[in-house]
Amino acid sequence: MQTLLDLSVGESLEQLEWLTVTQEMINQFADATGDHQWIHLDTARCETQSPFKTTIAHGFLTASLMPKAFAEVIAPSDRIASMINYGIDTLRFLEPVKSNDAVKYQFKLVEISEKPQGKLFRVEASCLLKSSGKPALVGGFLMLAVLKP
Known about the structure:
- By secondary structure, the protein is an alpha+beta fold.
- 24% of the residues lie in helices and 39% in strands.
- Strands 1, 2, 3, 4, 5 and 6 form a six-stranded antiparallel sheet that branches.
- The two termini are 24 Å apart.
């Protein structure tokens, strides 16, 4: 496994293991964010009123799993003091993540730029659904590697 500093522009990485998004995770996210819409929590109502026939994860729950997935495909570097989430450039939710479906993330390094604190990495990401193989989410995010002196 490579460190972030060893990657070149154009290289792609893929999470090895699928992560099942459980109803418990969805419930906890709803409690943490205060977003208690029925489409995320009410299984019985979803069976009859939702076009998905089941509860779905919050889009931002899916997005919030990205840093964990990214950390799973990048080896730690003793040259990096810390990694800072620098922001999201684009983010689109293309397909719902249904309760108990599994997801896996793919990443592609598209740009590296120098900052006074270190190196800024621009990464394109997609979150694939195990059930369909389609992307649930696509986007671009930025990670700042603060380098040790």
